[in-house]
Design brief:
427 residues, mainly beta, Beta-Lactamase, Immunoglobulin-like, 6 helices, 13% helix, coated pit, protein transport
């Protein structure tokens, strides 16, 4: 049972507040933000309590999405509800940001009235809600007269205007004049290296974002040599294998065994069609190799030398290392390093890395009372990155077909994204 729901900005600004049962005062907003800011670290616990009130929150889009409840409610159910509500608001408003929530507060309140009734969850389905939601969304992206990338001489269309725009996926539902279908292939890369021992886990999923009206069936074709487990190798080429795989309950698998085709009747909005896991053996090498060295110089300072080799071109890369005070020597002027004294972390930021290149950084740290045993207390090095247009599992989408066929045809595209979940190298 949900007592209250509210959205706060990272600075504690009150954006949305809804009291469903009137059992608690509105002072819980202030209490929650005081508890979050008083805790050390950047990741407070998801569930907290104050007297008889329990706070369950999720942070998305730089905002705190908070639900208050009593002790009889399941926290896992509420966390799942908050995540679905975030996806619902993103579908209707286009993006999850403070400005988007401020511009569409009336729409969000209308969604809350339909989704929750007296603290009881009713539905989070876009197909059901589209018959009741009447408020039009306000786009948070302002129009610019200088954005003429898709206009050629005398207003003619350019070749770029025929490509699906990057902002199409962030438009609100009511502003999508053309039908739009997107498939996202997401991979979470989890690596732990200690000495010569390497443990690799990959969690992937296929997400479908469908905003095509009256779409009766969607057909998604995967690799023909795709196999689940070690005993189902298929095809004559290099096999694409996963250890475990699960599908959405609406997916029809009558053509999966023979042709590796997934069939479903998609609902409006975003849904996860397939999830899979791959452990230990990967069809390709890890995207990054990091060689850390920690030692003490003659003056008693801690020297940390990091050498990073990249086999793929990610967009953004962060390397985190724990230490209290530093001077730095970086291999490129576009790199930067920041010391965070509260968490005792040095963040080495690299905006772009070309494939096959190697970067290095030397950090000199003044640590009071440094001794040889202190070198053993240096925490592991963690990498955080995002690699577009690449998947570590090798799973590919051969085709995406909708029926019935519309005229004119709607926008359809497939995106591949791989990002780190826990990429750790122990020193």
């Amino acid at each position: 049972m949900i007592c209250q729901f509210f959205i706060l900005s990272s600075k504690g600004d009150h954006l949305i507040y809804k009291d469903f049962r009137g059992e608690n005062s509105s002072d819980v907003v202030r209490v929650f933000y005081e508890k979050v800011t008083a805790l050390p670290g950047d990741q407070p616990p998801v569930v907290m309590n104050h007297k008889d009130v329990y706070f369950v929150h999720v942070k998305q889009g730089g905002l705190f999405w908070v639900v208050t409840t009593n002790s009889a409610s399941s926290p896992f159910t509420i966390i799942d509800f908050i995540n679905k509500l975030c996806s619902l608001v993103k579908d209707y408003c286009g993006t999850l940001s403070e400005r988007s929530v401020q511009l569409n507060f009336a729409l969000i309140y209308e969604l809350l009235d339909e989704v929750v009734d007296y603290g009881y969850i009713q539905t989070t389905s876009c197909d059901v809600l589209k018959n009741f939601i009447q408020t039009e969304a306000v786009s948070s992206r302002s129009f610019s007269l200088f954005d003429l990338s898709n206009v050629a001489l005398f207003g003619a269309e350019t070749q770029q205007s025929k490509v699906a725009p990057s902002s199409a996926a962030t438009r609100p539902i009511h502003q999508r004049e053309q039908s739009h279908t997107e498939i996202q292939r997401l991979c979470k890369f989890r690596v732990c290296v200690q000495g010569m021992l390497m443990k690799v886990d990959v969690e992937g999923e296929i997400r479908v974002k469908c905003y095509t009206p009256r779409c009766s069936e969607m057909r998604i074709g995967l690799n023909e040599e795709f196999s689940i487990g070690r005993s189902q190798l298929r095809g004559y080429g290099a096999g694409v294998r996963v250890d475990e795989c699960s599908f959405h309950q609406n997916v029809k698998l009558d053509e999966f065994e023979s042709n590796r085709i997934l069939k479903l009747c998609p609902s409006q909005g975003e849904q996860t069609v397939m999830q899979y896991q791959l452990r230990e053996e990967l069809p390709c090498a890890a995207p990054f190799r990091l060689f850390p060295t920690v030692e003490r110089d003659a003056s008693g300072r801690l020297l940390m030398y990091l050498k990073l080799r990249c086999d793929l071109p990610p967009k953004i890369l962060f390397v985190c290392l724990i230490c209290p005070s530093l001077s730095q020597e970086l291999s490129s002027p576009d790199q930067s390093a920041e010391l965070k004294p509260q968490s005792r972390v040095v963040v080495w930021s690299i905006p772009k890395v070309n494939g096959g290149t190697q970067l290095s950084a030397l950090f000199k740290v003044d640590v009071p009372g440094l001794c040889s045993s202190s070198l053993l207390e240096v925490a592991p090095v963690g990498l955080s990155f995002e690699v577009p247009k690449w998947t570590c599992s090798g799973l590919q989408v051969r085709f995406l077909r909708l029926s019935p066929v519309y005229s004119p045809a709607g926008e359809r595209w497939v995106r591949y994204i791989t990002h780190s979940d826990s990429y750790t190298i122990r020193i």
